[in-house]
Amino acid sequence: MKVFLEHAFNSIFFLLGLMHTVLTLANQRPFDLDALMYTGAGLAFIFLSFFNFARVKSKDWLTKLLSLVVNVLTLLYVVLIAVVFADPRVAIAIVALAVLVVLSMLDLRSASRPGDA
């Protein structure tokens, strides 16, 4: 069940990032600084999902720790976005990230630290 949740919520976040990136590149003319920022956020969301998919497959403690840190920082960023931009996609991102943060914490807790025998 945990692996299903990992893949489901990570896929949601990947698709949100893909939507940000592709729709901005396809529809924004002229391509200005706002479009560049929007595309960059979409790419960051895609990279975050790659990081989370790697965390699920990895047994490495550092990968799990860094994934938790990245998930928490991205959650804070998306909450700040929600303060200035009320949109259903932002709410979906907050829920997906909150679940990923909890799953990252559980994953890190179950991982053995370097030097543990």
| Helical residues, percent | over 70%
Shape: elongated
- How many separate helices? 4
Radius of gyration: 15 Å
Main sheet makeup: none
Give the averaged pLDDT, no decimals: 90
Unreliable segments of 5+ consecutive residues:
none
Question: Structural class per helix/strand content?
Answer: mainly alpha
Distance between the termini: 29 Å
Structural domain count: 1
Number of extended strands: 0
Percent of residues in β-strands: under 5%
The SSE string, one letter per element, is: HHHH
Architecture overview:
This protein is an all-alpha fold. The chain has one domain (2-110). Helix content is 84%, strand content 0%. The protein is built from 4 helices and no strands. Helix 1 packs antiparallel against helix 2, helix 2 (33-57) runs antiparallel to helix 3 (61-84) and helix 3 (61-84) packs antiparallel against helix 4.
Q: In a nutshell, what does this entry contain?
A:
The chain has 117 residues and is mostly helical. 84% of the residues lie in helices and 0% in strands.
Give the topology:
Elements: H1 2-27, H2 33-57, H3 61-84, H4 88-110
Please describe the structure with a list of short key phrases separated by commas or semicolons.
117 residues, 0% strand, 84% helix, mainly alpha, elongated
